[in-house]
Structures are given as C-alpha cells and as structure tokens.
Amino acid sequence: MATGKLIPTRSGNLLTTNQFDSITSGNYAIGPAIDLTNNPLEAALELNITPGTVSGDKIVYVYLKASVVNSSSGFTSGPESGTSTINEANLYYLGPLYCNTNSQLSSYIFSIKQAIGFIPLWYKPIIKNSTGATLGTGNTAHSITWLADIV
Question: What is the pLDDT of residue 9?
Fold first, then answer.
C-alpha cells in the first residue's frame, strides 16, 4: 500500500525589485505573480518586514489577488499602489503582520488555503502599510508549497 508524505519547498526572495521597500504609511504595494500551477496541497506566504519608527496601528495588512491565468486581466481587482481603498473588499485578506517595535524585523507565515479557502493557480501578494512609518529596505517574501510525495 502506498503511503504519502508532504514535501515542503521554500522559494528564494520573490521581491526581486524591492516592491515592499520604502512604502510610506497608508500605501499599498504589490509583489510579483506566484505560480502555483503544480497543484500543491497547501501554499503559504512568508513575509519579512522592517518598519521605521512605528506609531498608530503598527500593522502591515496582507492581501492577495488570485487568478486562474497569469495575465493582467485575469487577476481579481483591488488596489495595488497608492492610498485609494476603492475595491479593497475584492482583495483576499490573509491577515495582519504586527510591527510593534521600531526598526525591528517582523515575520509571519500566512496560510493561503486557510485564509481564503482554496489555492489559486496564480496569486500576487499585496501589502498595505499601516505602521505609521515608512517601511525600511531589505524586506522579503517567500512562497512555500507542500506537495504530496507518494512512497
């Protein structure tokens, strides 16, 4: 009888052009499209953010846009940059990343399946900086997937 185990895989830094660096408070930023067409059993987004001198909410809100095709017209709608919250409700909410300490790295792993109920074929991570400060530099995001390995 075949038995299976889950094999985790973690990507390198997905933010190749520093998409989440130096984002001022109140602004959105979007990362690159993440390919999940290998049909993982679970997928997660690891986010590592360093804020400046925090005040107010001290939170980075984490969202995603989902798609079944990797094209500009194939992703769900919602803000990607700037401060406009028009269509924010169309984004899939992953959760908060609390940034309570000035200039200190905050990290969290967000389960995509647990947060939105399914694993999209493609997604783009989106953050909204609500720390009260401009984000620092060197912020990273990693995609983590778990595939079944039948033994």
Answer: 80
